[in-house]
Amino acid sequence: MLVVENLTKRFGRNAAVDSMNFSVDRPMMLGIIGRSGAGKSTFLRMMNRMTDATQGSLTFEGRDVLTLRGRERRNWQADCAMIFQQFNLVPRMDVVSNVLHGTLNRRSTFATMFNLFPREDIHHAIDILERMGIAEHAAKRAEALSGGQQQRVAIARALMQDPKVILADEPIASLDPMNAQIVMETLRRIHEEDGRMVIANLHTLDTARRYCDRVIGMRDGRIVFDGTPAQLTTGVARDIYGADDSFSEDATSTEIRDAARPALTARAAATA
Ligand SMILES: Nc1ncnc2c1ncn2[C@@H]1O[C@H](COP(=O)(O)OP(=O)(O)OP(=O)(O)O)[C@@H](O)[C@H]1O
């Protein structure tokens, strides 16, 4: 279904992604972990065609993604929706209009200029917001919502595209543990109920273990681990994060715990 071969992205002499190879044969929840700068975002951006690869190939259901041009490329970007750490909503725009912006690629310039949305799209947007548990906020400005609610609006906007794949670039890195859990459960539910593939860059081991079917570990642009959550032992994690014997699982945890002992993220651990 997804085949990645020798995928490489160089920025000058630096290989952000270095000969990445893996394949996925069914829709699943795939987590990509690794310390800051490992190449996780660059991979998602190549898959979504926001960044061009230097070499290699990526095919999805037989579609040669990296060679798509024009309308075909835009169609792929609709099939492959992306959500981001900072939500990327229009803060002063109401929630339902933000969600409706997920249909932009199939609307005319005229309709876009005057913010005209077909009635059925508006109903569909509200149905999706209901599914996300935030329909009562539909008329509020996006900036009035909490981070967790804003991320669910961003997921709703992605679902408006009816994508085959959702790419989530550190979707919970800006959220408190409670909201992080709600957002991860939402992504898991979208995978299980709709059969969509979810690929999520994650900073925390326990999140990857808990929600993903398979985990890829990256270090310096290379895949250094590819396996099940059960195979992701502390020793393996130490390899991925490049930490020494003092590496502690706690340092990569977002578990809800005593507020007096806030959990450090892996990013914090890696840069500490
Ligand atoms: N536009 C760019 N120009 C130059 N170098 C870049 C660019 N984008 C990324 N890089 C470099 O590529 C490498 C991988 O970056 P990338 O953002 O993919 O890592 P990451 O694992 O997603 O890290 P983070 O978790 O901090 O986002 C880093 O060394 C980064 O500095």
UniProtKB/TrEMBL annotation:
The keyword Nucleotide-binding applies. CDD domains: ABC_PhnC_transporter. One of its GO terms (molecular function) is ABC-type phosphonate transporter activity. Keywords: ATP-binding, Cell inner membrane, Cell membrane, Membrane, Nucleotide-binding, Translocase, Transport. The keyword Cell inner membrane applies. Pfam families: ABC_tran. This is Phosphonate ABC transporter, ATP-binding protein. It comes from Maritimibacter alkaliphilus HTCC2654.
